[in-house]
Design goal:
The complex is a heterodimer of chains A (132) and B (656). By secondary structure, chain A is an all-alpha fold. Chain A has helices at 15-29, 39-48, 52-55, 77-86, 101-113; one strand at residues 6-8. Chain A is globular. The chains are: A mainly alpha (132), B alpha/beta (656).
């Protein structure tokens, strides 16, 4: 039976997740990121734990309520792990019972290993049209 | 069906009329039947209801352009075809069936299979989906005929989609009412006492005519009701016995009522002026449009209103509503800054100003407000004029400060005039400055969008951004139309393609019932074919497997359509739902031998959609896995479609 819902007036985003993300970006800018996992294992874990379902096989993300872009994420590892463990937004939290810290480190390394996207201006198909 | 004796002394119409009068008599005299139940006597023909009052009698006998119909002895179904022909309905997609065999024969032999032309469908769901997709392009309804109980049941999901999408479809439900004379066995199993009850809760109107004249009145009425906003499907039960019988006019010449389109309901002027006053006085007015306008004129009116106010327009996806190229076309995030919101035919106003986050195991979620306290809300829409009880497409209730009942396109001219009148000269500079800021935002977000499209550009499976960019590159010089499609490709067509014409994008299904995309795309392509336009669809894998027979109808009737598969090999919405619940419950989701949770993948074996299409007469290729192969394959497919054939490319794509 549904017991009712929490209603948060005036708040626009899942609060904890947003705070973690902002803190992580700030931390990333200070150079605390580390990536000592295994990219190949990380790719396998990325698939087996279903990260691809919302973020795409290349971490490219989707639109709005779908997964965010996480390819070459700017988050440092500790903030990345914290987000995965504690998110309260559309993305469900993944606890240690589901995915270990070691696997998260591998996934993180995989995401960092993805190629830098081309600049859109260097892709003819993204320039050969009238501007919207 | 059994042959009925031609020398029966009591014809079925007279019997039904007698029964009706007996029923009416019973209601006032205590229910005493005038005749034996086992041996009914042949009575004089009597009215099937109480005599009409003077007004009704005048309406039925004095309307001009009623052509007296001298048809004594001809099949009633011929007369029905004549009725249908007066309404300028071009096509009749349907699956053939005994319950409407008389009408079928009359359509193709007496009616010469034109206006409407019969399109053979493999499933009633396909037939209704074609009619839905056709209307979204042509703004003209089609007619379909369903076979008895089972056929109408097959049709239900796409009738529901059309109902939710406020699209008219004229549905005839074949039936055989007369239990004493219809064939026993299957025809009786397929009959119902009240066949329209199957779909009554999600149609606008229905009737069960018991005479040829009754059919004429009800059919024209049904057409008028279906096409008057709020538009919706209607159903006419066709008694096959009536359709097979010779016409008997009982001394009164039959006639076909003239159809006159009904003016759409427009918003009340006082409320419209109040809406204008709020919009003109707002610092940050935002227009949100969903199922708002169906025509190019409607788009032009909305552009005019937005430019007058220099207000951003959020395009929800039931229709195109507003050009994607216009600088006032902005993302939903602008709603957070609004002090006044004008919602135009929103299918879900509540969700427009609130956000439900599905973030806990109990499923109750968390709700956040998307708007500032004190934001004033205005709505214009006709849907509230047709709210039913059982099916919940009306969504959560949202209180609105100025709710206006009326069709958006019919109300916009008066709203524009009211805004012009309410706009003081000293506001014009402020409004212009607002427009300049929005223009700047638009330009910078365009660059962000393009860069987002570049991520995973060379990935395999192919990214949905690349899929859509490659398609557009091949059609950009054509008069193209993205016909009704299914599947979620992260909105890339709307984000990348310059959409300005109403047929560039005609919106979603309405009810989100899977199995709509393939037939609706064929219907859209049918309408485009007649206008010489190029049709492309983005076809999801799950949707196609509900109603793959739509492909055969396209090939059979030479409907050119480029279907590009968004083949992510799963029911992806459900992939994410099951994953979410497993995570909330701290459990590792079981995937078995598939990629997604058990029960959500469409793999092992992979479906070879290109071979499926080839088997039904399409040119097809696939699977295309390498993005470098996509452009050349598309070029080839476009040439095939331009030659008049349908073509399908089976593309393995990223999930979203």
């Amino acid at each position: 039976m549904r017991m009712g819902m929490r209603f948060v007036r005036g708040s626009r985003a899942p609060a904890l997740a947003a705070l973690v993300a902002i803190a992580a970006i700030v931390a990333g800018a200070s150079g605390s990121a580390r990536a000592d996992g295994d990219a190949q294992k990380g790719k396998a874990a990325f698939v087996s734990h279903g990260c691809w379902e919302c973020h795409g096989f290349s971490g490219q993300g989707g639109e709005t309520s779908n997964g965010k872009v996480i390819a070459r994420t700017l988050l440092p590892l500790d903030a990345f792990v914290s987000f995965v463990r504690n998110t309260n937004g559309e993305m469900p939290p993944f606890k240690e019972a589901i995915i270990s810290d070691a696997e998260l480190a591998d996934i993180y390394t995989y995401l960092q290993s993805l190629p830098q996207p081309k600049a859109a201006r260097d892709i003819p198909l993204l320039n050969d049209r009238r501007s919207q | 069906m059994a042959v009925k004796p031609s020398n029966m002394t009591l014809n079925r119409r007279k019997f039904l009329a007698t029964a009706a009068v007996a029923g009416a008599t019973g209601a006032t005299t205590g229910g005493v039947l005038p005749a034996s139940a086992t041996e009914p006597q042949a009575p004089q023909r009597l009215p099937s209801a109480l005599p009409p009052n003077a007004h009704v009698a005048a309406a039925e006998t004095e309307v001009p352009n009623i052509s007296p119909y001298s048809t004594e002895g001809r099949p009633a179904s011929d007369f029905m075809v004549d009725v249908i022909k007066t309404l300028d309905i071009k096509y009749l997609p349907a699956n053939p069936a005994s319950s409407y065999r008389a009408l079928h024969e009359s359509l193709i032999d007496y009616g010469k299979n034109t206006m409407p032309e019969y399109l053979t469908c493999t499933h009633e769901e396909v037939a209704v989906g074609i009619a839905h997709g056709y209307y979204k392009i042509a703004n003209k309804p089609l007619i379909t005929v369903c076979h008895g109980t089972v056929g109408l049941m097959h049709a239900t999901i796409n009738i529901y989609n059309a109902f939710c999408d406020r699209v008219p479809v004229i549905v005839i439900a074949g039936n055989d009412l007369d239990a004493a004379h219809r064939a026993p066995g299957v025809p009786t199993i397929h009959s119902a006492q009240d066949i329209n009850a199957i779909v009554r809760e999600f149609t606008k109107w229905d009737d069960t005519p018991v005479s040829a004249q009754h059919f004429a009145q009800s059919f024209v009425r049904a057409y008028q009701m279906a096409t008057t906003p709020p538009c919706a499907p209607v159903v006419i039960a066709l008694d096959n016995g009536l359709a097979q019988e010779p016409i008997r006019d009982y001394g009164q010449q039959l006639y076909i009522p003239k159809f006159v389109p009904m003016a759409a309901p427009a918003g009340e002027l006082g409320a419209v002026r109040e809406a204008a006053r709020l919009l003109v006085g707002a610092e940050h007015p935002v227009i949100v449009a969903d199922r708002a306008v169906n025509t190019q004129n409607g788009i032009a009116l909305l552009v005019q209103l937005a430019e007058l106010l220099q207000a951003p327009v959020v395009r929800q996806r039931a229709r195109l509503n507003f050009p994607t190229t216009h600088y006032l076309s902005r993302p939903a995030s602008v709603i957070a800054q609004a002090d006044v919101i004008l919602g135009l035919e929103l299918s879900d106003y509540w969700d427009t100003v609130n956000q439900f986050v599905d973030n806990n195991a109990e499923g109750v979620g968390t709700v956040y407000s998307r708007i500032k306290p004190g934001t004033r809300l205005i709505s214009i829409g006709a849907s509230q004029l047709m709210t039913k009880s059982n099916y919940q497409d009306f969504e959560r209730f949202q209180s609105v400060d100025v709710p206006i009942a009326g069709d958006v396109e019919a109300t916009l001219p008066s709203l524009i005039e009211a805004v012009k009148l309410a706009l003081p000269d000293d506001r014009k500079d402020v409004i212009d400055q607002r427009g300049a800021a929005i223009r700047k935002d638009h330009e910078s977000s365009r660059a962000t969008t393009l860069q987002a499209a570049a991520i995973a550009w060379d990935a395999s499976p192919i990214s949905t951004a690349r899929l859509c960019a490659e398609i557009y590159a091949q059609i950009k010089d054509l008069d193209w139309s993205l016909v009704p499609s299914s599947g979620n490709v992260s909105g890339w067509p709307q984000r990348l393609w310059p959409m300005e014409k109403h047929y560039h994008w005609t919106g979603t299904s309405g009810g989100y019932g899977v199995g709509w995309g393939a037939p609706a795309s064929v219907g859209g392509a049918l309408a485009n074919r007649d206008d010489g336009r190029f049709s492309v669809s983005i076809q999801s894998d799950g949707d196609l497997m509900y109603a793959p027979g739509a492909l055969w109808t396209a090939a059979r009737h030479r409907i050119p359509l480029l279907a590009v598969m968004h083949n992510n090999r799963g029911y992806h919405q459900e992939v994410m739902h099951v994953q979410r619940l497993a995570s909330f419950r701290d459990r590792v989701v079981s995937t078995g031998s598939d990629l997604g949770p058990i029960g959500t993948s469409i793999m092992n074996p992979d479906i070879e959609y290109h071979k499926l299409a080839q088997s039904m007469g399409w040119w097809a290729k696939g699977p295309i896995v390498d993005p470098a192969d996509l452009g050349p394959a598309l070029k080839e497919a476009v040439a095939v479609v331009q030659s008049g054939q349908p073509a399908l490319l089976n593309v393995w794509s990223q999930p979203r």
